[in-house]
Automatic annotation (TrEMBL):
Keywords: Coiled coil, Plasmid. This is Uncharacterized protein. It comes from Borrelia miyamotoi. Residues 119-157 form a coiled coil. The lineage of its organism: Bacteria, Pseudomonadati, Spirochaetota, Spirochaetia, Spirochaetales.
Length: 197
């Protein structure tokens, strides 16, 4: 039996035992499982299916008649709705994180103690790995930013060098053209002078 606040939750084997011993109701696990499944009488708590104490009396009734079965299903459905609501309220108030629960385990069993220590060690290692990974990611991001700035600087310098080279080439060509024009005009001037004389 699991007691959660005021709610008592039982596994199927426990219900069979209670019905046999306290109420002298002869049944077995298969019958109770089948009835609970047909009536949808299960509550899941911490990933385990339980049957609430309030529903046990409905599992002893004959559900062969359709009207009785429907009535029991609606009754169980309303009871389970309120039970699920109470369970969620209880969990919000009192549920502790799994790691805290593991740390609180105190046992004399060496195997259990070893498992608890291993789990705690693994959680610490996982935490450290996450921190290292995050730090590496941050470092890589910084490196990427630095490389982007360097690339931008290289692009700017390259463009400046290209512009300087182009200006030099243009100046050199202009000088060549000016020299050619000067020579050509000098030649033309000397030819005219010779013709005049």
């Amino acid at each position: 039996m699991l007691k959660v606040g005021e709610i008592q939750l039982y596994k199927v084997g426990e219900i069979v035992k209670i019905l046999n011993e306290k109420f002298n109701y002869k049944t077995n696990s298969q019958i109770i499982c089948r009835k609970a499944a047909m009536l949808n009488a299960y509550v899941t708590y911490n990933d385990i299916r339980y049957i609430p104490a309030d529903v046990i009396s409905h599992l002893t009734k004959n559900i062969r008649q359709r009207e009785i079965k429907t009535y029991i299903q609606t009754t169980i459905e309303s009871q389970l709705a309120s039970i699920n609501k109470e369970l969620s309220i209880y969990d919000k108030k009192y549920k502790i994180p799994p790691i805290t629960a593991i740390k609180r385990i105190k046992t004399q069993n060496a195997n259990t103690t070893t498992i608890v220590k291993a789990v705690l060690q693994l959680t610490e290692e996982i935490k450290n790995i996450k921190e290292q990974t995050q730090e590496e990611i941050n470092n890589k991001n910084k490196e990427i930013l630095i490389l982007k700035k360097e690339i931008q600087n290289i692009k700017e310098k390259t463009q400046e060098n290209i512009q300087i080279k182009l200006l030099k080439e243009v100046k050199a060509k202009l000088n060549n053209l000016n020299n050619l024009i000067y020579k050509d005009s000098k030649n033309n001037h000397s030819i005219k002078w010779k013709q005049n004389t």
